[in-house]
Structure formats: structure tokens, C-alpha cells
């Protein structure tokens, strides 16, 4: 996804609505409520001023980059809102375990609250924010970051909660780190804040996906402009994401449960307009994982499955989806490194428990 | 419980069988298999020499004492044996979080593997072992230590597993520390090793229960002597513990489940000899928690409920109890500080989910 505007050099209050809107869509339904994240980021910028943004290519070799964000079930996070002190606590708790001072903060994922918490953390700590993230979208588990593909370890990592409980974890691999951090998160009430993946500058430059903060901002801006100009927001989002409109319809069923610290569930919709008489089924684990049209896979992880309100173009999160809502579903290609054999091992359909092989959304698209 | 022999000044190989036997009984069925603990301690002493023992009263003001041990379900621990490197790892992981070097090691509890792991840890680290523990028996949860009564915090604490995963935890209170450490332990496979309750010398002197390592050694020695001299081991154990023989009988039913990281269950026995025609029921959470004779409470936490093989006098752990075994059940008074209102709030029947008030075993004893 290439931004049509110049990349961000700082994040100020005026940028937040577009970044929140764009990252809510890129978050594929997950990453937590963007509205809550936006409030946290705005408050931090009001208090501490705008956040300087460093292009990924400009991160120096001697940098020490960490990613920060929220872990848990978005369904819980909307009620148990992370405090900004939690984010800085997670960073402060990690400092003694690192060989050098932290120099930069980056986003784990571009998605809802998790594109906003790093902005808040950067504002409060005075550290610059890297224009990059570890997913190019949102994924539910902490090993699902592109730096994992080049052997960067998530640990040492910290998980802290709103009560002041803090864990420093050293796990033998990133999948184990996910299991252990998730167990603590569940016990902390299914919502907590982390700092992880300490990376040297060269590791960050190679491991992270560049310019995704700018891309989210650009996407959000294009969507807002389309809406203001009474153009089709869904078509504009498709164009920006190089994606395909898979479906328009009305939500006819939704099942949701908080299981193992995740918001899991499924939703069904019946088609409207050109899709009249057809049915689409979505399954999610915090994020939308697979979309089936008439029982046939139309898009799946790692490709993006995005849902928007068909009238307003507002991204619909998995916890925000409601019976009767009229929505559009977009499928869009993931970052190319997720489509490699190594990438698919980490975030392909099989890693979410499905037995079908991955096929790119552009190949699956209905003729 | 007052030892009839001089207190230990060191622990050598020759002391291990008696300490293991005595602490298996004091462990009230919990604390893990004493045989496994004994092997770990023997190996460490063979490699590193005997362990110097410091009397609790001799711990200096500027000491920094920690307790070490195993956390999890004894049913799992008998198959997933803690490695001694795990214990030293748990200590080493805690060092950077402490303001000063660790000077002494103590037992969390006098019970099976948890009276032996500290010996192994002391041998391997070269630190002296304090002749004391935090329970005077064994209890299943990590907030159930006498130092808790004077406000000593369990954190910072470490939990490590056999794979090399390590957690450093700072929790807001000891009950939360228990919940979070337990969640990690379950995810680590229901058996892990910890270091916790960093205490200054004065805190240790006031907070720990003195001379319990010597008492366990003395108890074990008296039981062995009684057996060698064909005297009644059960009667000797009763005398040593100032306890009462509650029952002799045959195990007729046993239910066990590993639930929430604990070995929970119940056992029933029908009386033999003087107890013919009566029934005793035991309930346990790692340790024996309550004994009922004919449905009436005969002993309960915090008092000790101990089970021995009626023929050999060997202590019977909760995971070692078998259908058809002929056993004797002893009730014995807990350390007086457990019988105070504060002590009962922490380890009384209500803290184990029972709604009956605590009554001392000597008052409950059948006339």
C-alpha cells in the first residue's frame, strides 16, 4: 500500500482522526476500539506535544526499538480501557532488562487502539515513533510479527495491568512467549499492556514493515475525503488497499465469546444489491480471519478481510458488529513477506486452525 | 514442636533421609514427593559439599533472605521432576531485581520436595540455609506464609520452568501474586520453581518460623528409631507433633483431579481396630485440608492433618494415597501464629472455601 501523500514527520492532534480511521480498517476488525485509542493519544499529545516520527530507513544502527500495545480481548478492552500510565509502566519495566536505553517506539500492529497506544507512549516518554509496524495489519497473537521471520525474539517483554501488576518475561521462543503472556493477560482480566521485541536499528529496518503509520493516515484521509465528497467510501478504500469488494449485505447472525483471552466468533450476512440471494460468513479471532461466500473461501489470513458500514464507510470491528447492520466486505493483499512459505507458517490459515491452503485474494475473487 | 536433639548446624548426606521423612509428615500430604526432593538434594551435596545452616536468631540485620521451592500440582511434579538448574535459575533471575546480594536461603514450607529444593539450592549457590520456614508445615498457595502476616510482600518473585522460561513478577499484593504465578505455572505444565519473599534479616527473624528444619530432622529420626525398635511409629509421630491419632482405617475411595494447577480431591476410609464401623473423609488441595469422622470435623487447616502408612509409618502424600491402603490419620496443632485471627484469615477453613469456623484439633478430638 503506497501512500499518495508525503509520509508523516510528526503526529499531532490533527492527524489522529485519519490515522484512527485508516488503522481501524487495516486492523481487519481487531486491535481494539479506535475511538478509545484516539482519546488516549489525544490526551498525551495535549499534555506533552506532538510526536516526532522517524522513517524506518532513518533508524540508526545503534537504535534500540521496542513495540508497545495492548494485549487481550477487544470485547473486554472497550470496557476496561488501558490507562496511558500502563503503557509507560510497560516500557519502564522493560528498561532494566535491556543492555542500552530505548531510543524509539514502534507499533506492533496497525489496528485500532494498537496504532494509538504507541503514539501516546511516544508522547509521554519523549521517544520518537518509527513509521512502521510489525504486521502491516492486525493479528491476534504476539508471535505474528514480521521480525519473528528473521529470528528476532519477542522477549524480554513486559506485561502490565491497570492495577499495577507487572511481569517481565523471558521465554524460549515467541510462541511460548505468546502462551505465557496470554495466560497472565487472562488472569489480569483479559486486557493488559505490553512492551516487547527489543530490536537493534538494523533488525528494525529489516524486520518491520515500513511507512504503515503514514499509510494508515493516508487511507483514513482518502476515506474521509470520499465521504465528504459523497463518493463511495468502500470503492475508495478498495483502491487504496489494492483490494476487492467481496460482498455487500446485511448481518443476519453474530456469535461472540471470550475464549482463552480472545474474542472469537462468527457472523453471517445475506447479500443486497448485486449480491442479492448470496450469503457471506465471517470467522474471527479478535481479527477477521476468513470470509466465505456461499461456503467458498473468498479471502483468508494473512490477506486482509475488512468490514465497513456500507452507508458511512466506518470500519466495523469484530466487537462492534451488530445484527442487522448493512456492511461491505473487502479483501486485500497482505504485505508480500506474509505470503512467503515462512510467512504463511506463522500467519497462514493453518496457524489459525484451518486445513485449507492459502490462496491470494486476487486469485480467489469471484469471476 | 520442640526438637529433642541439638539443632542442625549443617546439612550433609546423612541428614537427608530423616529430614525427608519428617518433612513429608509435616507436609500434611503436600509439598511434593519427598523421595524426588531427596535425590536432588543428595546430588547437589555430593557435588558441592554439605550446606551450612544458620539458626534463625543468628541471621544478621543486613542479610537478604529469600525462600525457594516448587510450585504446581504434586501429581504432576512426580512425573515432571524439577531440575536443580531450575532452582538456581529462579534465584539468578531474581538477583537483578533486588537492591543487595542474596545472603541466605530458607524453605517456604517444610514439606516433601520443598524442604529439599532449598538444600539443593543452598549447596549449588554456596549460600547458607536458614533453619526456618514460612509455614511450619505445607500449604498450597504462595500468600500462605507467616511473613505475609507482618506485611512482607512475596514480590518481586521469579517463576522458571524446565524449558528455560522465566518470569519476574511484581504484583500489588500476595494474593494477586498467587493468582498470576499460578496462571503461569499452569501454562508451564503445572510444575515450576520459584524464588520469592525477599526479606531483610529483621523481617526474616520476625516473620519465619524458627528451627523447623531441625524439627523435621528430629521428627524423621524419631520415626526411624521407633520403626527400627519395633515401636508404634504413629504413636511416636503423635508424641513428637503434640498431636492426636484421629483414625486408623482402610482407604475405600479416592478421587483426584488436577484443577487450576492444584491436585484436588477427597479420600474416604473405613475404620479398623478401635475405629471399626466408623468412617473418615479427607479433602485435599495439594495438602490435606480437613478430616471428618462420621461427618463431623475432627481437624482442619491451619492445624495439621497427617496420614501415615499404618504398618510402616511412612508418610502418605495426597498423590501417593491408594485404594486399599491401611493408614493412620493424625491431627496436630499448627504454629500458634496461624491460630490468631490474622493467621486464620490467611489459612483458616474460610480461605479454603469452607464455612465452618476453625476449632483447634485438641478441642475437636473425640472424647
UniProtKB/TrEMBL annotation, chains A, B:
Pfam families: S-Me-THD_C, S-Me-THD_N
Domain S-Me-THD N-terminal: 15-170
SUPFAM superfamilies on file: CV3147-like
Domain (S-Me-THD-like C-terminal): residue spans on this chain: 173-361
InterPro entries assigned to the protein according to its UniProt record, in alphabetical order: S-Me-THD-like_C (IPR048350), S-Me-THD_C_sf (IPR024071), S-Me-THD_N (IPR010318), S-Me-THD_N_sf (IPR027479)
Domain of life: Bacteria
Protein name as it appears in the record: DUF917 domain-containing protein
Species this chain originates from: Streptomyces radicis
Lineage start: Bacteria, Bacillati, Actinomycetota, Actinomycetes, Kitasatosporales
Amino acid at each position: 500500500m503506497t501512500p499518495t501523500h508525503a509520509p508523516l514527520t510528526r503526529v499531532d492532534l490533527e492527524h489522529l482522526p485519519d490515522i484512527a480511521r485508516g488503522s481501524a480498517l487495516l486492523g481487519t476488525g481487531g486491535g481494539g476500539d479506535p475511538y478509545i485509542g484516539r482519546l488516549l493519544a489525544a490526551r498525551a499529545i495535549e499534555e506533552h506535544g506532538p510526536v516526532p516520527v522517524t522513517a524506518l530507513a532513518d533508524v540508526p544502527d545503534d537504535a534500540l526499538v521496542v513495540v508497545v500495545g495492548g494485549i487481550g480481548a477487544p470485547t473486554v478492552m472497550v470496557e476496561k480501557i488501558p490507562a496511558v500510565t500502563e503503557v509507560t509502566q510497560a516500557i519502564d519495566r522493560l528498561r532494566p532488562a535491556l543492555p542500552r536505553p530505548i531510543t524509539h517506539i514502534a507499533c506492533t500492529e496497525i489496528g485500532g487502539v494498537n496504532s494509538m497506544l504507541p503514539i501516546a507512549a511516544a508522547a509521554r516518554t519523549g521517544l520518537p515513533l518509527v513509521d512502521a509496524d510489525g504486521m502491516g495489519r492486525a493479528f491476534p497473537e504476539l508471535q505474528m510479527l514480521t521480525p519473528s521471520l528473521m529470528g528476532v525474539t519477542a522477549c524480554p517483554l513486559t506485561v502490565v495491568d491497570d492495577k499495577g501488576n507487572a511481569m517481565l518475561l523471558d521465554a524460549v521462543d515467541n510462541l511460548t512467549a505468546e502462551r505465557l503472556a496470554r495466560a497472565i493477560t487472562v488472569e489480569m482480566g483479559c486486557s493488559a499492556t505490553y512492551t516487547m521485541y527489543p530490536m537493534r536499528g538494523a533488525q528494525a529496518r529489516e524486520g518491520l514493515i515500513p511507512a504503515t503509520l503514514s499509510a494508515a493516515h493516508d487511507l483514513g484521509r482518502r476515506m474521509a475525503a470520499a465521504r465528504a465528497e459523497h463518493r463511495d467510501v468502500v470503492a475508495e478504500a478498495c483502491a487504496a488497499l489494492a483490494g476487492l469488494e467481496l460482498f455487500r449485505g446485511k448481518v443476519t447472525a453474530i456469535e461472540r465469546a471470550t475464549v482463552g483471552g480472545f474474542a472469537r466468533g462468527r457472523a453471517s450476512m445475506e447479500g443486497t444489491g448485486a449480491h442479492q440471494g448470496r450469503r457471506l460468513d465471517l470467522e474471527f479471532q479478535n481479527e477477521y480471519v476468513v470470509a466465505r461466500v456461499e461456503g467458498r473461501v473468498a479471502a483468508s489470513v494473512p490477506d486482509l478481510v475488512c468490514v465497513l458500514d456500507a452507508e458511512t464507510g466506518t470500519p466495523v470491528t469484530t466487537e462492534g458488529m451488530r445484527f442487522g447492520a448493512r456492511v461491505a466486505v473487502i479483501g486485500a493483499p497482505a504485505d508480500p513477506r506474509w505470503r512467503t512459505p515462512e510467512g504463511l507458517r506463522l500467519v497462514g490459515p493453518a496457524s489459525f486452525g484451518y486445513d485449507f491452503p492459502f490462496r491470494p485474494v486476487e486469485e480467489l475473487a469471484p469471476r
